[in-house]
Write a structure and sequence with these properties.
54% helix, 7-stranded mixed beta sheet, single chain
């Protein structure tokens, strides 16, 4: 089999063949159904039954069917035609699965979680940063069935790119599975870079004087990092299995490219781990800053309460109705009391200012 061309050479090329959409009589959840022979897409429209019959009649090529959020009834015909295991079909319909790789007799079932970064004005005001979806893939010797969940997980552009490079499709359906995994992991890299920018903004805000940011923004970011972590970390084992020859359905020349995808995933995993550690540090710093601010506020309140206590005490004593009180009938008694109050307050104010309580 010919080797898969370098992934770097595929980016930036013009798409040369449009994707043929499913016929109206096909189920609405079948986004595309195509037969590829010698790396080229056969012209015309195919149902899933006609497509697999054509491939097995020729004893060459493979079928690639793309589905979008099918229910059990809509996927059952395809499952019967390709002999998909009922447990894997149930997972593909219900979604909300962890990334994994299962082997059922002559088929593989792989789950990948997709992520999309949600643009926002500032991470300190955002309510959501990451949107997740899923791609499930059933891989056989002459077919691959992809099931998507989530609006952002489209594979039409990947199909166009691969059809523009027939030498990739000549390798077989395993090359499609590699292309999907590579695209998903590339999206992880892009999302992690955007996260890094957000964390830089939050870090600057945390250590800025009198910044409005609070612990709730930190916990929001940690929650979104956890969402990304759930997509990235569990995928490492499936990719490593595919790179190490877990199944003959993935030929040797494709395994080396899965190793490259695994390397990229390791980079993302390290970034996510560092983000989580940094956010934990920022949460601690934010809580310490809040505690320090509260302590400062309490000292100010205490200082002003001590200053106000002086006139309160003096006025309280002088206001008692006794006939025999010192200087009670003295002409300058009132001005003297006011001067004593003012002097005492000024002395206390200077003391508190010198000790940075005010």
């Amino acid at each position: 089999m010919p080797a898969i061309p370098s992934l770097g050479g595929l980016r930036g090329r013009n798409n040369r063949r449009p994707v043929v959409q499913a016929t109206p009589e096909q189920n609405a959840h079948v986004i595309d159904c195509a037969v590829y022979v010698n790396g080229e897409r056969l012209p015309g429209h195919f149902s899933h039954a006609d497509a697999v019959a054509e491939v097995r009649r020729r004893r060459d090529g493979f079928v690639w069917i793309g589905l979008y959020e099918p229910d059990e009834g809509q996927i059952q015909g395809i499952a019967d035609t390709f002999g998909l295991h009922e447990l894997a079909v149930e997972d593909a319909v219900t979604a909300h699965q962890r990334p994994k790789l299962d082997r059922y007799e002559e088929t593989l079932f792989m789950v990948l979680k997709t992520v999309r970064y949600i643009a926002h004005e500032s991470p300190t005001t955002a309510n959501e940063i990451v949107e997740t979806g899923e791609i499930m893939a059933f891989l056989g010797k002459d077919f691959i069935v992809t099931v998507r969940h989530g609006r952002h997980s489209g594979l039409a552009k990947l199909r166009e790119e691969m059809e523009a490079e027939p030498e990739r499709l000549r390798v077989g359906p395993a090359a499609v599975l590699h292309g999907i995994a590579d695209r998903v992991v590339d999206s992880y890299l892009a999302v992690s870079e955007s996260f890094e920018n957000d964390i830089d903004v939050i870090e600057a805000s945390v250590f800025a004087p009198r910044s409005p940011i609070g612990a709730e923004q930190m916990y929001l970011m940690k929650r979104e990092i956890l969402e990304l972590r759930r997509a990235v970390i569990p995928l490492a084992v499936p990719l490593r299995r595919l790179a190490e020859g877990y199944t003959p359905l993935v030929p040797e020349q494709v395994r080396s490219y899965f190793r490259d995808v695994d390397d990229h995933l390791t980079t993302v995993s390290e970034r996510v781990a560092s983000f989580d550690e940094l956010l934990t540090t920022l949460v601690d710093a934010t809580l310490a800053k809040i505690s320090l601010q509260q302590n400062t506020d309490m000292r100010k309140i205490t200082a002003w309460a001590a200053i106000i206590a002086v006139p309160t005490m003096v006025v309280g004593v002088e206001g008692m109705n006794f006939d025999y009180m010192p200087e009670l009938h003295w002409r300058f008694g009132y001005p003297m009391v006011m001067l004593v109050i003012l002097a005492a307050c000024l002395i206390l104010y200077r003391i508190f200012r010198r000790n940075r309580w005010l």
